[in-house]
Design a protein that fits this description.
Elements: E1 3-12, H1 22-30, E2 35-44, E3 47-57, H2 62-73, E4 77-87
């Protein structure tokens, strides 16, 4: 079995009162053992997104399991979109 590298775009739901703490959420995501890099990047109109690069083993449910763990890490996480995927 091989490994795949996936680059994700993680967007956050914007609370009405304050801007989300992107750095705290990025730090939480970067603590996952599969994560290689985490960057906070501009999106539009002052909004940001978190770009996450991970290396996962191939197999049924591994990618979905990682995405579920990211979603569960913070209530503000809105959408997780795979930008790039390739084999190592």
């Amino acid at each position: 079995m091989g490994e795949v590298v996936i680059k994700y775009k993680v967007t956050l739901d914007q609370p009405e009162e304050d801007a989300p703490d992107y750095q705290a959420i990025a730090d939480r995501i970067s603590s996952f053992k599969e994560v290689q890099t985490v960057e906070i990047k501009p999106l539009a109109f002052g909004m940001m997104f978190i770009e996450v690069q991970v290396v996962l083993g191939e197999g049924d449910g591994i990618v979905d399991g990682f995405e579920d763990r990211v979603r569960e890490s913070d209530e503000l996480i809105g959408q997780i979109e795979a930008l790039e995927m390739g084999r190592l």
